[in-house]
């Protein structure tokens, strides 16, 4: 039977999940159900019903480095190798759709989920994601880039409205997704929880139809984030294919009724059902042997892939007097709880049940014979939960001060509470007890080598006092051996930062308005995100975008540009083989001509990354590398004309090792399709990138409309988060919100990890309840719950009870209809 021949109810049933992780198939049309699983850096195949927050047990799988760490490799081919291993494991664990990679732009370093995202720059994010997607899908498994789009904070994540101007959205927040779609053709894409300019992502026609399908040519399935669908009929009209996890038959009835009423075209319903069926058939695994993941050879091989990725992603941030690599014969003390109890991934839905674990102490000890480096002892140094403990501090100092200790390796960073889905960081600082340990160790006079564990930038108050800093990020299950190989010189570090590290949080462009605590998250900084801000506004930083040291030294020469790209020569001037990343930045006509942002040409940052290549060089070897121009190199989005345009004029092309170390530059005449005209002087502070002083009037010019944030609602609706009930007039609702808030705080303090279930509930709007209860709660019952929140407890309870019985009867009728009884 053809898909179109199915009943409206049967096609509607295919557009929502049958369980936490499974789609609904249709036997009559030979459309199998398929399995989805979290998997940005490892397959989280849960047992039984499971949950979407990583709390339930899952099958063992390789834990690779997180996206924020992998991006520091600047190596899409390496990402593809990782993707091949991920896809193989997904295949062997009967997973059809792997939910990743994360492509959201790192707008602010405090976003709790930044470790899952690649970069502050869309070119790096898009190219790295494209590599991973190609690798995953080479196994017949669908990748699913997420969260589409403009999703930058965890607070109120299901009840937040990202207010953004069209040009910034297109150029910064969507370009990475565009690259991934055009270059890797993912079969699935996941929408984000938030609204974009007042319309939920999963029912945003401009996003899903005009841009994703119409402009980029995407022909796959669009799945909602779990609980992220708002209105089933609106989603189908706009291009949303599948809502997850499981609204039961509520959405089926809504879609069926809309078709009957003529408010939803059956053509749209057919299109969405066909998109779901396409995934089911494309990832079907008939006749394919599975379940050999845990074979020793496969597990060992994938552990080696994880190690190789971690090695290539480690970033050497400081190396005074060649403190690294450690020299044979050296005696080192190891300090830090994380050196023995490793932290190598973040918390939340991406958390993987690793096939094995390593720690730095054991890896140093086991490598002693081959490296000639001995460990004089280990001291915990600090309490992992941040509680001051003088005994631990004294033990570490005594170990460092021993006469047989030549240097100290201190492993510090962010703890499990700091980086998690559902919770933004409150500070860029690491726990004070760890800073205290470093201060005490440096007072011994011994060289201190810091190994830094964190998925996002942190403030480094002791940076000037230590000998070396190796940033390993969240480096996966093989991260410890990878770090030891870098420390001992078996691997030459070649990672470069894929995001800027500010000196302090107050320097961040969005620091004064992040995160938004009410409904509207206004992106008032416009395009000045990350290095685009720091380089334009000339704000000093700790480490510029693209920064990374090496045990080798490199020089750049012979820059040449032609109509299709640039070439330059890179030379390894040292006796040590190594690798570096050549980065191409462009400066538009407005800044090339006078350098003050006031010449002809649209508003632009001082420079923008437009290409890169990682190059490996033997000692004293030179290579000529080429970075090609493409559709992204010179374009800008012309809002008035609603199209991409290229300005004619003289541009500057620069190549170097990071955004501030551009050794080569040349001017280049571009023959575009529009003449450069002066930017509107009414943009004011935007013209110099000074976004911290932008006025509301200037912002209105950028946005093309007046922008005002909404305040606290006087009454609660289905899309206000449960956390907002603390202001409810109703005792029951107010008590629920306050109790949940206290519980989350208590659990986090007691266990050292966030209470993800409680955080999810607090951030969740009531309408999500009907999307996540497998049909037990429908939209009418949600309305009754909101009535309770608004202080009408008994009226709401009456509606809830009546709605329950009405919904149960309706579910039985729908089930009977679908079963053709």
From TrEMBL:
Domain Fibronectin type III-like: start-end pairs: 580-659
InterPro entries named in the record: Cellulose_deg_GH3, Fn3-like, GH, Glyco_hydro_3_AS, Glyco_hydro_3_C, Glyco_hydro_3_C_sf, Glyco_hydro_3_N, Glyco_hydro_3_N_sf
Domain of life: Bacteria
GO terms of molecular function: hydrolase activity
Record keywords, A-Z: Carbohydrate metabolism, Glycosidase, Hydrolase
Family statement: Belongs to the glycosyl hydrolase 3 family.
Identification of the protein by name: Glycoside hydrolase family 3 C-terminal domain-containing protein
């Amino acid at each position: 039977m053809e898909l179109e021949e199915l009943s409206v109810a049967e096609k509607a049933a295919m557009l929502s999940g049958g369980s936490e992780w499974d789609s609904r198939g249709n036997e009559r049309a030979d459309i199998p159900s398929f399995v989805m699983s979290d998997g940005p850096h490892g397959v989280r195949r849960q047992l039984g019903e499971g949950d979407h927050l990583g709390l339930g047990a899952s099958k063992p799988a390789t834990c690779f480095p997180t996206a924020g760490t992998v991006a520091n490799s600047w190596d899409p081919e390496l990402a593809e190798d990782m993707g091949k291993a991920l896809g193989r494991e997904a295949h062997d664990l009967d997973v059809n759709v792997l939910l990743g990679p994360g492509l959201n732009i790192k707008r602010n370093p405090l976003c709790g989920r930044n470790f899952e995202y690649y970069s502050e720059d869309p070119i790096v994010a898009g190219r790295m994601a494209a590599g991973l997607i190609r690798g995953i899908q080479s196994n017949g498994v669908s990748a699913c880039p997420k969260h589409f789009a403009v999703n930058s904070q965890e607070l109120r994540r299901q009840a937040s409205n990202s207010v953004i101007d069209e040009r910034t959205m297109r150029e910064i927040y969507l370009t990475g997704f565009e690259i991934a779609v055009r270059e890797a053709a993912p079969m699935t894409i996941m929408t984000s929880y938030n609204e974009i300019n007042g319309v939920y992502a999963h029912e945003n026609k401009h996003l899903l139809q005009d841009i994703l399908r119409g402009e980029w040519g995407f022909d796959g399935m669009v799945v909602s984030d779990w609980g992220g669908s708002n209105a089933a009929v609106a989603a189908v009209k706009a291009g949303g294919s599948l809502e997850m996890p499981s609204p039961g038959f509520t959405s089926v009835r809504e879609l069926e009724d809309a078709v009957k009423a003529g408010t939803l075209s059956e053509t749209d319903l057919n299109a969405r059902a066909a998109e779901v069926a396409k995934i089911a058939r494309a990832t079907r695994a008939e006749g394919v042997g599975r379940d050999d993941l845990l074979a020793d050879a496969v597990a060992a091989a994938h552990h080696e892939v994880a190690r190789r990725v971690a090695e290539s992603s480690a970033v050497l941030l400081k190396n005074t007097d060649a403190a690294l690599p450690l020299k044979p014969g050296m005696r080192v003390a190891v300090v830090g709880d994380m050196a023995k109890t490793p932290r190598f991934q973040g918390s939340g839905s991406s958390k993987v049940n690793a096939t094995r674990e390593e720690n730095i102490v054991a890896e140093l000890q086991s490598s002693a014979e081959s490296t000639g480096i001995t460990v004089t002892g280990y001291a915990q140094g600090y309490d992992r939960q941040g509680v001051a403990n003088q005994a631990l501090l004294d033990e570490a100092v005594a170990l460092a001060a021993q006469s047989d200790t030549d240097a100290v390796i201190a492993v510090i960073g962010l703890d499990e509470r700091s980086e998690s889905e559902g919770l933004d960081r409150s500070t860029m600082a690491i726990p004070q007890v760890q800073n205290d340990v470093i201060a005490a160790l440096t007072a011994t006079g011994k060289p201190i080598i810091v190994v830094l564990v964190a998925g996002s930038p942190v403030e480094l108050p002791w940076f000037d006092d230590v000998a070396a800093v190796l940033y390993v990020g969240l480096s996966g299950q093989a991260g410890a051996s990878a770090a030891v190989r870098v420390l001992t010189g078996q691997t030459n570090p070649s990672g470069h930062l894929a995001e800027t590290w500010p000196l302090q949080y107050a320097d961040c462009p969005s620091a004064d308005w992040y995160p938004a605590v009410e409904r509207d998250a206004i992106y008032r900084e416009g395009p000045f995100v990350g290095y685009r801000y720091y380089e334009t506004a000339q704000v000093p930083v700790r480490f510029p975008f693209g920064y990374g040291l090496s045990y080798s030294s490199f020089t750049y020469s012979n820059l040449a540009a032609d109509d299709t790209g640039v070439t330059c020569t890179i030379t390894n001037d040292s006796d040590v083989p190594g690798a570096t990343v050549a980065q191409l930045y462009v400066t538009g006509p407005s800044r090339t001509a006078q350098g003050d942002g006031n010449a002809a040409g649209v508003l632009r940052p001082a420079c923008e990354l437009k290409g890169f290549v990682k190059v490996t060089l033997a000692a004293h070897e030179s290579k000529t590398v080429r970075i090609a121009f493409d559709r992204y190199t010179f374009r800008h989005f012309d809002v008035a004309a609603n199209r991409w345009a290229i300005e004619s004029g003289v541009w500057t092309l620069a190549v170097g090792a990071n955004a501030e170390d551009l050794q080569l530059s040349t001017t280049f005449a571009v023959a575009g399709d529009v003449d450069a005209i002066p930017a509107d002087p009414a943009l004011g502070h935007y013209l110099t990138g000074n976004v911290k002083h932008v006025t509301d009037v200037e912002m209105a010019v950028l946005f093309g409309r007046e922008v005002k944030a909404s305040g606290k609602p006087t009454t609660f609706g289905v899309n206000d988060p449960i956390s907002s009930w603390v202001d409810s007039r109703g005792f029951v609702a107010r008590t629920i919100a306050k109790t949940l808030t206290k519980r989350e705080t208590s659990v986090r303090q007691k266990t050292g990890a966030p209470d993800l279930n409680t955080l999810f509930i607090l951030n969740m709007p009531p309408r999500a309840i009907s999307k996540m209860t497998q049909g037990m709660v429908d939209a009418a019952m949600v309305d009754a719950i909101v009535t309770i929140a608004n202080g009408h407890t008994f009226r709401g309870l009456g509606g809830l009870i009546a709605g329950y019985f009405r919904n149960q009867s309706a579910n039985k009728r729908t089930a009977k209809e679908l079963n053709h009884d």
